[in-house]
Amino acid sequence: MIIGLPKEIKNNENRVALTPAGVSELVANGHTVYVQSTAGEGSGFSDEEYQSTGAKILATIEEVYAIGEMIVKVKEPIESEYKLVKENQLLFTYFHFASYKPLTEAMVASKAVCLAYETVEKNGGLPLLVPMSEVAGRMAIQKGANYLEKPLGGRGILLGGVAGVNPAKVLILGGGVVGTEAAKMAAGLGADVTIMDVSLPRLRYLSDVLPANVKTVMSNRYNIRELAKHADLIVGAVLIPGAKAPFLITRDMLKDLKKGCVLVDVAVDQGGCIETCKPTTHENPTYVIDNVVHYCVANMPGAVPYTSTLALTNATLPYVIQLANNGWKDACRADAGLKKGLNVVNGQIVYKSVADTFGMAHLPVEEIL
């Protein structure tokens, strides 16, 4: 198979979807890999390193899309890329369709095959979302602690406090991978942490494995509203696979939050769980509403591309090889979890949650396979 690796062009996105080591594996399996020049520079990989493992370098993104039977990316195509996507071309990347209807419509119109990292399943989990969720969860606390500083608009409170001064109160909404990693990080810095989830078994598990300065509380409207009033940092860490996250912090709640409270919505790339959050970039990461700082960068792991690229490709490469060796149809027939990654195929939405989000037509994926 001919595989194309374009350079990511989303604002301040420095990750790359394949490392030179990944290219080497694909070439060893008999495939041809075309890499856009400087695609790996943001993550610390030079064109020469790719060439040394068998890749062919192309100058432009247009050339990569034109030649690739499978395009492997990190983030969804942005508007300038829509016209480059070809009919029957396989795109393997994070899409988060439910957060942006124009992207969904563009990929439907392209008649490409869109296989989304974030909905691939294995043993009931989301293996291609886990590594970036780990990074984003830890970064949420790192960034939150930073923006709690007064010069950046925050309350002027040190996350861990000092002797004789209470630490900051951190509220984490969601006890999945993002929430768990955020809780670990916040607890390690000495914060007073509360993590919420709708699953009692999950809360029991978290209570057992997290440090003593992490409290677990059942997530419901009343509890969220009451705890939010006392929080210095609130992390939105809610995920519903393939669908938009519900709003847990609503617009009317902001008036009750502390002045200089910081909101970090890790779920923003799937629509967000904080009503007043809208996607921002690393270039302009925050804005303030009702004296509350909002940090809503949609590609948080892009700020630490070396770590993120290695963590992501450790997870994605086996699937890339599987798709290249067998073709997407046979690969998805053989692997029910990989089949769950199919979102849009040849002009049809085959992932029900995406279709339902926008009231669009849905075709069961079995009818295509």
TrEMBL record:
Query: What is its EC class?
Result: oxidoreductase
**Which CDD domains does this entry report, sorted A to Z?**
L-AlaDH
**Hey, what's the signal peptide range on this chain?**
none
Q: What is the recorded name of this protein? A: Alanine dehydrogenase
All copies of the Alanine dehydrogenase/pyridine nucleotide transhydrogenase NAD(H)-binding domain together span 148-296
PROSITE patterns reported for this sequence: ALADH_PNT_2
Q: Which NCBIfam families match?
A: alaDH (TIGR00518)
Please list the residue ranges annotated as the Alanine dehydrogenase/pyridine nucleotide transhydrogenase N-terminal domain: 4-136
Instruction: Show the Pfam families listed in the entry.
Output: AlaDh_PNT_C, AlaDh_PNT_N
Kindly give the InterPro entries that the UniProt entry links to this protein.
Ala_DH, Ala_DH/PNT_CS2, AlaDH/PNT_N, AlaDH/PNT_NAD(H)-bd, NAD(P)-bd_dom_sf
Q: Which family does it belong to?
A: Belongs to the AlaDH/PNT family.
What UniProt keywords are attached to this protein's entry?
NAD, Oxidoreductase
State a single Gene Ontology molecular function: alanine dehydrogenase activity
EC number per UniProt: 1.4.1.1
Which reaction does this chain catalyze?
Answer: L-alanine + NAD(+) + H2O = pyruvate + NH4(+) + NADH + H(+)
